[in-house]
Design a protein that fits this description.
Oligomer: single chain
Number of strands: 6
Shape: rod-shaped
Structural class: alpha/beta
Distance between the termini: 154 Å
Number of domains: 3
Length: 361
C-alpha cells in the first residue's frame, strides 16, 4: 500500500476540503486547535475551498479551505509548502479580510464572529519558538492574559515535529505525523489506526483511489514544487551572498570612516605637536634672552660691586690720613668711575691735603 503526499494541494483538498470528509476536518481542527468542551467543533460547512491550479503556470504554492462551525466561527485552513516572501503578511491579510467580509453594508458589528487562520507550513517560520504549534492573538501588552478573541493566527510548523511513530501520544501528534510521513508509509501503523478520522484520511490518500490522470497531475505538481524549492534555494543563496557583500561593504565603509577619523585625529595631534614645538622653541628663545639678561645683570652687579669696593677703600684711606671726609668729597667719590677712583687711590698717600687730592686732574 502506498500513500500520496497530503501536503500536495490536490491531496490536501481531497482529504480536508470536501463535504464527504467533514468528519476528518473536524477531528483535525479539534486536535490541532485543542478545542474541548463547549468549544469543540461538532459540525461545519465548507464555505469556499480554493481550487488547485491545473498545472499550467502553477502560480499557487498553497491551498486553503474555508469553513464555518456550528457557532458561526470561521476557519481558514491553509497548507503552505514554499516559504515565499511576504507570506506572514498574506496570512494576516486573509484572516482580516475574512473577518471584515462577514458584514454586508449597514449590518451591525455585533454579528461579527471569530476567525481562526490555521496554517500548516512545510518549513520553519519562527526559529526562536520551539513549539510545533504557535498561536497569535491580539493581547494587551501590559497584561497578556487579556486578549481579543475574534482574530487568531495558528501556525503548525512540520519541520519542528520530530516524534517517531512509537512516540505518538496525542491526537495532534498523530495528525502531525500523518501530514509529515504519510507519503513514506506502506501500511497503517497501529498508533494511527486508533484514530478513525486518520484511517479515513489515509484511505483518501491511498494511491489506489486515484485515477491515472490524477496521478499524472500530482506527479507534475510535485515536479513543479521541486523546481520552485530549487529556485527559492538559489534565490536565497543569492540574497545571502548579496547580504554578505552589503555587510562587507558596510564594514569596509565603517573601517574607512574610522581610518579617516583616526587620520583626522592624527593630523590634529600633529598640528598640536607642531604648535607645542613652536611654543617650546619660543620658550627656549625667551629663556636664552633671560639668561643673557641675567648674565648682563650679574656682570653689571659685579662691576658695580668692584666700584663700590674701590670707593669704600678710598674713603677708609682718607679717613686714616685726614680723619674726616667732607660730604662733598664723599659725593664725588660715589659719582666717580673706576679710572678716577684708581687715580685717587694711587695719589692718596702722597697728597698733602684732602683738597689737594681732589684738585688733581
Amino acid at each position: 500500500m502506498r500513500f500520496l503526499n497530503p501536503k500536495t494541494d490536490f491531496v490536501f483538498k481531497k482529504i480536508f476540503g470536501s463535504d464527504s470528509s467533514r468528519d476528518i476536518l473536524i477531528s483535525f481542527l479539534n486536535a490541532v486547535l485543542t478545542l474541548t468542551g463547549s468549544d469543540t467543533i461538532t459540525d461545519l460547512a465548507i464555505i469556499d475551498p480554493r481550487l488547485a491550479p491545473k498545472i499550467d503556470g502553477m502560480k499557487d504554492s498553497f491551498l486553503d479551505v474555508r469553513v464555518r462551525d456550528q457557532r458561526g466561527y470561521s476557519y481558514i485552513i491553509e497548507m503552505q509548502v514554499l516559504n515565499v516572501e511576504g507570506f506572514e503578511k498574506r496570512v494576516l491579510f486573509n484572516a482580516s479580510k475574512a473577518y471584515v467580509n462577514q458584514l454586508d453594508e449597514a449590518e451591525p458589528y455585533r454579528i461579527l464572529t471569530a476567525v481562526v487562520a490555521l496554517t500548516i507550513t512545510d518549513f520553519s517560520m519562527f526559529p526562536d519558538l520551539s513549539h510545533v504549534v504557535s498561536r497569535f492573538r491580539l493581547c494587551a501588552e501590559e497584561n497578556p492574559a487579556i486578549c481579543h478573541q475574534d482574530l487568531e493566527l495558528v501556525f503548525a510548523e512540520l519541520p519542528k515535529f520530530t516524534k517517531s511513530e512509537s512516540e505518538l501520544e496525542t491526537t495532534v501528534d498523530r495528525w502531525l505525523f500523518f501530514l509529515k510521513h504519510a507519503v513514506d508509509l506502506t501500511i497503517i501503523p497501529e498508533s494511527l489506526a486508533a484514530e478513525p478520522a486518520i484511517v479515513r484520511a489515509l484511505g483518501l490518500a491511498s494511491m489506489a483511489g486515484w485515477t491515472k490522470e490524477e496521478l499524472d497531475l500530482l506527479q507534475k505538481r510535485e515536479w513543479w514544487l521541486d523546481d520552485q524549492r530549487y529556485l527559492f534555494q538559489k534565490a536565497r543563496k543569492v540574497q545571502e551572498v548579496e547580504q554578505k557583500l552589503q555587510d562587507s561593504e558596510a564594514r569596509f565603509q565603517d573601517s574607512e570612516a574610522r581610518f579617516q577619523d583616526f587620520e583626522a585625529r592624527f593630523q590634529d595631534s600633529e598640528a598640536r605637536f607642531q604648535d607645542s614645538e613652536a611654543r617650546l622653541q619660543d620658550s627656549e628663545t625667551h629663556l636664552r634672552e633671560a639668561r643673557m639678561e641675567i648674565k648682563k645683570a650679574e656682570t653689571k652687579a659685579q662691576a658695580e660691586g668692584a666700584l663700590r669696593a674701590k670707593a669704600d677703600a678710598l674713603i677708609r684711606l682718607l679717613e686714616r690720613r685726614f680723619h674726616k671726609v667732607p660730604d662733598a668729597f664723599r659725593e664725588r667719590i660715589s659719582a666717580a668711575d673706576a679710572d678716577q677712583l684708581d687715580a685717587w687711590l694711587d695719589a692718596v698717600l702722597e697728597a698733602p691735603t684732602i683738597e689737594a687730592l681732589f684738585d688733581r686732574q
